[in-house]
């Protein structure tokens, strides 16, 4: 069974600033854990949830197989946000033998799409553009020549009839674990001009077809609308970082100090500060690049920043109240009963709970974020094992069921609390 170490466990009114390192640091964190909760009724609820997680998560992290008969993740960071406390928990060991810390960078994979969706929702609330704005009117240059009547909303909800990925994605790489590596503007332009390379044969707006290509194009539309420099002379990571770091934007507003684009040109494939992953066949791989489609899956982050993002989604303040409401409203209904989609955010009813979620996976890594507005509880799991998002989802749904039992039990019994 994997050994759990609690990196942080602080009421929301405290700033999280320490990180687990030496055994002495770990001891300090344990002392802080005990003293910060004060064991009032709310804190006891969190301790009950924590105890549940200590027993559940090692079933999915460590060595051997998980309850779904898939390989466990060697390591994982679990961010927990509740109405009374936040925590960043560390499980297992990284490939270098160390336990993961709250500062270790993980690829978010498709959780990047949630961030792109929030940037778009910000623009809609600010009346910069609308969901029905044609992409063709937002994207400048030769890329626009390959677009049809797809709208921003079509791409954000995966109703634009784009393929998941263009069939020429591997044009600039032979790396089977990073098929989108160095995918460039010229290749994307060629793909958009050929329906069989970039599209599926359904009318635009008629069918849900998950598309990283579509969200990647939406990201490019946002770059161009906000006059972010891009082009062959500018590494795409620099362009994406400029979008992420716009004044009053998500990264600066939330002080997300470590959230940035994967930069292959800057050597991120060998960057020791970025966690290495493990494929389902136990092959060690670095985080991967998606070229100019990076807004759909090439953002890096860590536990500390994910805690800030999750707290904002659960308890938005200021302008973010309207943005989060917009981003999480159902835009399109999906075939699965009780399922819909917002701004690249999945909305699902599971076990009587309405859950908002975004999951992501690439070779060697899986990640997922799920939060519940009713309970005020959310989780983010960042792991270094590929192809286990379904297992992580199962783990977090169990965690949400327990959180509902803990945090809503009094309300369901008709009790009231001051």
The mean pLDDT is 90
The CATH superfamily of the largest domain is: DD-peptidase/beta-lactamase superfamily
Give the quaternary arrangement of the chains. Answer: single chain
Tally of domains: 2
The major pleated sheet works out as: 9 strands, antiparallel
Structural class assignment? alpha+beta
Q: Helix content range of the residues, please?
A: 25-40%
Distance between the termini: 40 Å
The fraction of residues assigned to DSSP E strands is 15-25%
Please give the structural blueprint.
Elements: E1 4-10, H1 23-37, H2 41-56, E2 75-81, E3 86-92, E4 106-107, H3 111-125, H4 152-156, H5 185-192, H6 195-198, H7 212-225, H8 236-244, H9 250-254, E5 260-261, E6 277-278, E7 284-285, E8 299-301, H10 303-314, H11 320-327, E9 332-333, E10 340-341, E11 346-350, E12 353-362, E13 365-372, E14 377-383, H12 389-407, H13 409-412
Helix pairs in contact: 2-12, 3-7, 3-11
Q: What does the model show?
A:
This protein is α+β, with helices and mostly antiparallel strands. It has two domains: about 5-55 and about 70-105 and about 300-325 and about 350-410, no CATH class; about 110-300, Beta-lactamase, CATH 3.40.710. Helix content is about 30%, strand content about 15%. The protein has 13 helices and 14 strands. The chain has helices at about 25-35, 40-55, 110-125, 150-155, 185-190, 195-200, 210-225, 235-245, 250-255, 305-315, 320-325, 390-405, 410; strands at about 5-10, 75-80, 85-90, 105, 260, 275-280, 285, 300, 330-335, 340, 345-350, 355-360, 365-370, 375-385. The strands form three sheets. It has a nine-stranded antiparallel sheet, sandwiched between helices. Strands 4-8-5 form a three-stranded antiparallel sheet. Strands 6-7 form a two-stranded antiparallel ribbon. A hairpin with a 4-residue loop joins β2 (about 75-80) and β3. α2 (about 40-55) runs antiparallel to α12 and α3 (about 110-125) packs across α11 (about 320-325). The radius of gyration is 21 Å and the shape is globular. Mean pLDDT is about 90; it is low at about 1-40 and about 410-418.
């Amino acid at each position: 069974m994997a050994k759990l170490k609690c990196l942080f466990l602080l009421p929301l009114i405290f700033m999280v600033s320490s990180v687990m390192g030496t055994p002495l640091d770990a001891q300090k964190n344990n002392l802080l854990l005990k003293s910060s909760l004060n064991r009032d009724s709310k804190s006891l609820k969190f301790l009950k949830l924590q105890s549940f997680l200590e027993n559940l998560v090692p079933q999915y992290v460590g060595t051997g197989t998980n309850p779904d008969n898939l390989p466990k993740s060697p390591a994982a960071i679990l961010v927990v946000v509740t109405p009374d406390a936040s925590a960043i928990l560390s499980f297992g060991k990284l490939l270098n033998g160390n336990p993961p810390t709250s500062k270790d960078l993980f690829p978010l994979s498709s959780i990047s799409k949630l961030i792109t969706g929030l940037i778009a929702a910000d623009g809609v609330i600010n009346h910069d553009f609308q969901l029905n704005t044609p992409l063709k009117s937002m994207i400048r240059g030769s890329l626009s020549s390959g677009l049809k009547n797809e709208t921003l909303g079509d791409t954000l909800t995966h109703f634009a009839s784009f393929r998941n990925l263009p069939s020429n994605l591997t044009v600039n790489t032979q790396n089977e674990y990073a098929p989108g590596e160095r995918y460039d503007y010229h290749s994307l332009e060629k793909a958009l001009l050929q329906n069989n390379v970039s599209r599926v044969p359904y009318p635009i707006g008629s069918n849900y077809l998950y598309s990283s290509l579509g969200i990647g194009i939406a990201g490019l539309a946002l770059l161009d609308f906000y006059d972010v420099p891009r082009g062959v002379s500018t590494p795409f990571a620099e362009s994406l970082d400029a979008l992420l770091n716009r004044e009053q934007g998500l990264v600066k507003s939330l002080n997300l100090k470590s959230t940035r684009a994967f930069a292959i040109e800057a050597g991120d494939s060998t960057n020791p500060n970025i966690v290495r992953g493990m494929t389902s066949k136990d092959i060690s791989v670095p985080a991967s690049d998606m070229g100019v489609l990076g807004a759909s899956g090439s953002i890096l982050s860590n536990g500390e920043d994910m805690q800030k993002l999750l707290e904002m989604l659960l308890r938005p303040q200021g302008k973010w109240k309207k943005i989060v409401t917009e981003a999480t409203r159902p835009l399109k209904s999906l075939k699965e009963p009780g399922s819909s989609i917002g701004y690249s955010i999945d909305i699902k009813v599971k076990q009587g709970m309405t859950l908002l979620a975004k999951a992501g996976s690439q070779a060697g890594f899986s990640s997922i974020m799920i939060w519940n507005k009713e309970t005020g509880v959310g989780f983010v799991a960042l792991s270094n094992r590929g192809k286990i998002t379904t297992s992580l989802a199962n783990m977090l749904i169990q965690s949400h069921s327990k959180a509902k039992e803990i945090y809503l039990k009094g309300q369901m019994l008709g009790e009231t609390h001051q």
